[in-house]
Amino acid sequence: MPSYPATAPSNESRAPAAVEHEDVRVVIVEDDEDVRTAITFLLEADGYHVQGVGTGIGALALVQAFQPQCVLVDLNLPG
Questions:
Q1: pTM (2 decimals)?
Q2: Tell me: the pLDDT tens digits for 5-34?
Q3: Using alpha carbons only, how large is the chain's radius of gyration in Å?
Q4: CA-based angle 19:53:65, to the nearest 5?
């Protein structure tokens, strides 16, 4: 039977601590309302502040007003 050392695991093997998201603002630009709602739900559940919009023109106004740190954009927006 193998023998294992009786030492505690090092900090290197532990999972990283959760990142704080309460001050992170994200804009979702997605024309499919169901997709936009699902992404918003998932990010908000993880603590992000999320605003969504369905058009590129709307995104420009929202980004200026909301000042997000991250913008997720659908690459296939119509128009």
A1: 0.73
A2: 566 555 556 655 556 777 899 999 999 999
A3: 20
A4: 75
